[in-house]
Amino acid sequence: KRSFLAPIILKLEGAMALPNLPRIATVSSRSGALRPPSAAALNLILRRSLSGITSSSPSNRPPVIASAAEVNTQKYSHSLSSLTCLLSNLSLLRNKHAPIIQPFSSLPPSHLLTSPPSEPITILTLSNLTDNPGATHKSRRIGRGIGSSKGKTSGRGHKGQKSRAGRGVHPTFEGGQTKFYKRLPKVGRMKNAKFKLELIPLNIGRLQDYVTMGRLKAERGDGVLTMRDFVRAGMFPASSVKSGVKLLGGGKEQLKDKLLIEVPWASASAIEAVEKKGGYVTTVHHNRLAVRAALKPEKFPPKPESAIGEGEKADVEDLYLLPKRARPPTKYMQYYTDYSKRGYLNPKVQLERKKLGLKEIY
After folding, report:
1. Are strands 260-263 and 224-225 parallel, antiparallel or unpaired?
2. 35-44, 70-79, 145-154, 197-206: which range is least confident on average?
3. φ and ψ at 283, to 5 degrees?
4. Which residues, at least 6 apart from 188, have a Cβ–Cβ distance to it below 8 Å?
5. Rounded CA gap, 193 and 258, in Å?
6. If residue 289 lies in a helix (H) or strand (E), which one and from where to where?
């Protein structure tokens, strides 16, 4: 092989320009590793190389190197590197494990020159998706004979509370003595949770704005504004009213009209501002059932026609069989009997309401 290719190397020295030789080694499309070309491909490469050298070197040109100004150094170096790789690969064709030499100008990217992985590369699909080795283990079944080590009593022992179905003892059991959480006193919300009130704050200034816009009007015949009127005016939805509304004195300097109001709670400043304009505030207790009856009386059965008075315009509350109002709990009894709070159970408040021609509260 060396004696056959020696004239090629000599003619290369006198060549002015050589054609670009194709790559000697190719890259596998699957694994990314380099593989040697076939014998047919090498024969074709050799023919093209020889034809390119003879065509580019005239017979009358002496086999000497031309001057540096006339020689294209870039093409010369590239062709020399390609032909050197050709000779090296020809001598290594029979050795499959020998490395394949490539010219530096035709090397593949660096990530393709790495050695192939030690494990075969597989594509992850639903058919081969499994846990890592050791991540799971098969649980031991009980009651499958003595050979399973959990037969007969299945690890529960003989008789007793712990061997029965339901697994007996509660985690807080202390052998029969009073449990720890029952020995502690009731404090805070534990004691007063059932008396908690969820009240919606309502300022006097906002009330006056809705009256001025004409959106807030009394539905009852005596002209008293109730929580039903506030909901109908769009001040808040009926679903947000849990325990009632608390009247506050915010914006009291905007109050101009005479207002008659019935609410579950009211502040001292709000009561003073309303009464200064000639109005009146009454605080009335509402439990959950009374709130529902005040906001949506149509949810209750209607009264018979004989029970409705004729000749007088009946209010909405008089058209339905509403439940009797519950008495306030002991905790709030003092509030609704206090005159300064304008509680509806105070005798003086009841007398003043009668003078104003307001409906009695039962």
Report:
1. parallel
2. 70-79
3. -95, 125
4. none
5. 38
6. helix 288-295
Residues with Cβ < 8 Å from 124, sequence gap 6 or more? none
Select from 249, 279, 278 the least CA-distant residue to 262.
Answer: 279
Tens digit of each residue's pLDDT (9 = 90 or more) over 117-170: 577 888 889 998 999 999 999 899 999 999 999 999 999 999 998 898 887 899
Q: How far is CA 186 from the centre of its chain?
A: 38
| Token reading at 356 | 């104003």
Q: 273 Cβ partners below 8 Å, 6+ apart?
A: 204, 249, 252, 255
DSSP annotation of 67 reads: -
- H, E, C per residue of 186-220: CCCHHHHHHHCCCEEEEEHHHHHHHHHHCCCCCCC
What one-character DSSP code corresponds to residue 309? P
Q: Which tokens is 65 given?
A: 């190197």
CB distance 25 to 34 below 8 Å: yes
* pTM for the whole structure: 0.50
**Residue 349, Ramachandran bin (φ over 0: left; ψ between -120 and 50: alpha; else beta):** alpha
Nearest CA among 273, 283, 294, 291 for reference residue 208: 273
Distance CA 204, CA 266 (A): 10
User: pLDDT tens-digit profile of 200-221?
Assistant: 999 999 999 999 999 999 999 8
Of 161, 238, 163, 249, residue with least CA distance to 205: 249
**Which residue, chain included where needed, has tokens 């050695």?**
115
Pairing between β-strand 26-27 and β-strand 34-35 as defined by DSSP bridges: antiparallel
Q: Which of 44, 40, 357 is nearest to 222 (CA)?
A: 357
Distance, in Å, from the CA atom of 120 to the CA atom of 127, rounded to the nearest integer, reads 17
Residue 136 tokens read as 């799971």
